[in-house]
Amino acid sequence: MTQSSNYYHDKITLRLVQFSVIWAVLAMTAGVYISAELVWPTIDFGQFWLSFGRLRPLHTNGVIFGFGVSALMATAFYSVQRTSHVPLFAPRLAWFCCYAWQLIVLLGGLSLLAGWNSSKEYAELEWPFDIAIAIVWVCFGIVFFGTIATRKIKPIYISNWFYGALIIVIAMLHIVNSLAMPVSIDKSYSLYAGAQDAVVQWWYGHNAVGFLLTGGFLGMIYYFLPKHAERPIWSYRLSVVAFWAFVYSYIWAGPHHLHYNSIPEWVQSLGMAMSVILLAPSWATMINGIMTVSTAWEKLRSDPALKFIVLSLAFYGLATFEGPMMSIRSVNVISHFTDWTIGHVHSGALGWNAMVTYGTFYFMIPRLVDRELYSVRLANIHFWLALAGTMLYVMAMWAAGVSQGLLWLSVDQIGELSFDFKDIMASMTPYYLLRLVAGLIFLGGTVLMAYNLYMTVRGRETARVTVPAVDPAYGVGA
Amino acid sequence: MNGLTIHRKIEEHTGLLIFGILIVSAIGGLVQLLPVLNQESLETATSNTRPYTAAQLTGRDIYIREGCSVCHSQQVRPLIAELERYGPYSRAGEFVYDRPFLWGSKRTGPDLHRLGGKYSDDWHRIHLLDPRAVVAESIMPAYPWLDKRSAKETGNITAKFIALRRLGHPYSDEDISGAEAELEGLTEMDALIAYLQVLGTGLSGEDEGAAL
């Protein structure tokens, strides 16, 4: 064994966190801007690249693939080394993943502004980017599974299963859904048409949420929550059951995005039934997490990072309850096509994904540079801003969405429509304004964190962490 | 061997874990996708559904480029209020030439599937250039650049027709050789309006229960 391989490769993690924070600020700013466009529609100033239809995919792709995936790569690389007791497999390939991914997000974002758009939700990037994504993703898999394959600890820790599921299932979804006939560099036609394309797209769309925004971030929870609470996972057996139930049942849930649409009814009903079942593995994981911190509540008083992570579990529980409810056809008839969906997505994306990531960054960054967090006070302020922003956002969208759903469907005693579409639309302005304020509050908190982390890292080198000796009871040879 | 022993094998073996995840996660997709992808009725056009003309296809690609489907659905659900507001509910056979589908997931603005023929071309032109000139409450963006660009700049229409024919759309050799000429003199605005006017016109009395 050479000298250099006795240290964990943590510089990659730090760099990925830096990119992740930059994308968070940029993509959330885009989100705030388009929410303002819904209140003042002329603030695109007739510029095509400021137009709502182009900025919206920039916002979603920036958050999911810029902020989200960079954070997932960072934490996967950090935790897989520590749970395997070996440095990263193929560190150069890991560096390639890091920078190639940022290039995809940057150029992909610009291509969306230029109007290169396949229009498939959360898969808007055109075919050249789809190929690049597939290549980087395979490299990510090689680094990750290579590290596990060369591990010194016999069992593969549970967090790695979730990261593993993220890598494998997203690859499968991405490749199948992106199959298309290229016409030119900026244009392709989907291999599937009409109703069939819809079913394939929502198989992808729902499970991008499932395996990236849920599975990947659960990997984060399973490593960082016990580490932070200094308690082992409450029930390893429950995590085993919940994992396989999660991997099996999530994939069926896509068709609940197509209730009452022109696809076979059995597909809708099956999707609905499996979505309701999905509540069980989702909550099993939440309960496992909450029980893990249950003897460490006093830490919440002094530790903003743990506060973020515990709160994220609460929002995870909320969103994974709301989702199955919205997938029931008689509820979906009201919620579908409304702002309720937008609220649901954000209770997940802000309350769950962003908060667990923020908590993890506050935990990980001081350790990466071996220096205390610059300001615990700022982190506490950030916590309350994040909570207030998320709550206001979700409540505004609940009110807007339920109103839309009910008013659209309302008919009077002789069966005539009770309301004009444009009157219902016009009545949304106060909610859209509240949502804009909510977004600004949340973005403000994120900017505070960026400053706080910058001041923590400034002038510091990544700390060198030696791979510890392996307890013989758990060693590969045991 | 009980369940936990089997599982211990998986959790100590990288290859088994990868294989296990792949198999378990693939089942649901196979059960749902394979029958749907092989269901002929989902690929059978309704009586008036035709492959898009050069202008309509160009218009559709502009609709995609501008992200119209972010705020407008193209899917009328079989519900009383929707039939009254928009017209007959959407049939799978009306979308067989739609690559990709554009049903959308959000109605910030109204559904557009039955838009074809509802308003004049002039109304659409004014509306796309200045939405609030015709609908005071509108929060739709304006699209002033569509009027200034030629429909030929949107993309290579001949290559598009060839690509779609490869995917099974029934374009004849004459359709393909004449595609470029059809766009002669048209702006992107004209092409987009041509697309909007053909939306939802695929049903006729020959289709079972077409009135609904």
Describe the fold and architecture.
The complex is a heterodimer of chains A (478) and B (212). Chain A is mainly α and 478 residues long. Chain A has a domain at 1-156. In chain A, 71% of the residues lie in helices and 2% in strands. Chain A contains 16 helices and two strands. Chain A has a two-stranded antiparallel sheet. In chain A, helix 6 runs parallel beside helix 9 and helix 13 (339-369) runs parallel beside helix 16 (429-457). The relative contact order of chain A is 0.10. The mean pLDDT of chain A is 96. Chain B is an all-alpha fold and 212 residues long. Chain B has helices spanning 3-11, 14-37, 54-65, 80-86, 121-129, 131-134, 157-166, 173-182, 188-198. Chain B is globular and about 75 Å long. The model of chain B has no long low-confidence stretch (mean pLDDT 95). Classes of the chains: A mainly alpha (478), B mainly alpha (212). Chains A and B meet through helix 2, helix 4, helix 5, strand 1 and strand 2 of A and helix 1, helix 2, helix 3, helix 4 and helix 7 of B.
Number of strands of chain B: 0
The main β sheet of chain A shows up as: 2 strands, antiparallel
Task: Return Rg of chain A in Å.
Answer: 22 Å
**SS content category of chain B:** mainly alpha
Secondary-structure element sequence of chain A?
A: HHHHHEEHHHHHHHHHHH
Largest sheet of chain B: none
- Please indicate the percent range of residues of chain B in DSSP E strands (runs of 2 or more): under 5%
Q: Count the strands of chain A?
A: 2
